[in-house]
Amino acid sequence: MPTKYIIVTGGVLSGLGKGIAVASIGRLLLSRLKIIPIKCDGYLNVDPGTMNPFEHGEVFVLDDGAEVDMDFGHYERYLNVNCKMNWNLTMGKVFDMVRQKERRGDYLGKTVQYIPHVTDMIKDHIFKVAKEESADLVIVEIGGTVGDIENELFLEAMRQMREDVGRKNIVYVHLTYVPIPYGVNEQKSKPTQQSVNLLKQRGIFPDIIIGRCSELLTPAIKNKISNFCDVDPEAVITGLDVDDIYEIPLIFEEEGLAEILHKKLNIYSPPKLRKWKEFVENMRNPDKEITVAMCGKYTQLEDSYASIIESFNHCSAHLRCKINLEWIETTDVRDTSFMENVDGVVVPGGFGHRGSEGKIEIIRVARERNIPFLGLCLGLQLAVVEFARHVCGLEGANSTEMDAETPYPVIDILPEQREIKTKGGTMRLGAYTAVLRKGTLVQSLYNSSEASERHRHRYEVNPDYHQLLTEKGMVFSGCSEDGRLVEFIELPDHKFFTATQAHPELKSRMEFPSPLFYGFVKACLS
Ligand code: GLN
Question: Structurally, what CATH architecture does the domain formed by 4-278 represent?
Fold first, then answer.
């Protein structure tokens, strides 16, 4: 079978959930196909690693150390794949590649132009990935909204692909918005018509339209959209507003999307999503409940902690437990009385000194009152600072990120980071293996002598303090293979006091919840 392609574009407005739509489409077809998701973003940054989480949500990190858009989190969680750096194509990267090629002289004296040189670069890249991965199906998400100047070249490349791969092997899906205006109380198709017109002006004629709507699309509106936009009525699919994004594949299935794709791409008829449905039902029908405090400084934008939220959802699905997250903005926490009403505390990753003292205080209370605590990256570092100050008696101990003048720099910059001046892609990034210590909680949770988790940091536990910390009772439950870096810590006499230098939330999947989160939730329940 030749590689098949599904191209997903968006219209009317941003934020309709294109990433989840792509992931859900893939999930429908997953059982027998090797599916590779590719995301094209129009911005000129090479990757989103340097963007503020307030603006762009969480920076997702892949095994290979790529810093990518949070949509890759959805792809990995729904498609059970480990994505790679070159599956993300930003216009910044495309221009970089074109310029390098031009400087090498590879264009042989030609005038280098948007068409064909930039569009060819985009297509060649996609075909190369498809070949390298022996993909049965490639799903390409075009970021942004049709009509944006910055994604025009991607759209043009996608139009051209129809000729390159053959009409039978490519399907265009357009995600739009079907509003029900207040007082009119009727589903409206005009924005969809206009958006499809914009797409048609670019030579792309969608085969499938997904209309995001607060209700199921009526047969009447499906007919209308079908009529105005030249798609079959059964190829107009509802993208229903839901509280729980894991329902989307099930809704697509009920709306007949799997069958349409089967016919249009001439691929196998996929079986029903049985296991997935069970997980969703467990989440919907919990038989127990806990409340976890999420103590960070980006709490106004839950997107900056997307993978943590999903990791808890995965635990929910396996433990049938409702997990309420209480967001605690730590910038000026003085009062820790909220801790009386929570079952556990998470201190997630973060950068800079704002909020760090609040977090340290919260960690102290969690440690002293035997409240389950999970520290992620910065959370580990601050747990070490807290322990150094209050157990080891090192007054004023700190991370040099927070206080360059601290008398006890228990957390310090990684030696190899000292000389680095540029910001993009220069942290310690990607998956690293930690050797787990026998008999520790962490080792029993991973049920293995090793754990490979993804990283994104510049600081570490200062080796000068390893001895003191362990003498005073902190257990290093996992270290880097050379023994130099502390990757996991725990306190043995505590109900659950565990932290990691990594970001285990990035590898949690519906089928395989992160062991640390799972252990933490169980401790909160007990
Ligand atoms: N700011 C810390 C460091 O760079 C922690 C980073 C993080 O939490 N991802 O090491």
Answer: 3-Layer(aba) Sandwich (3.40)
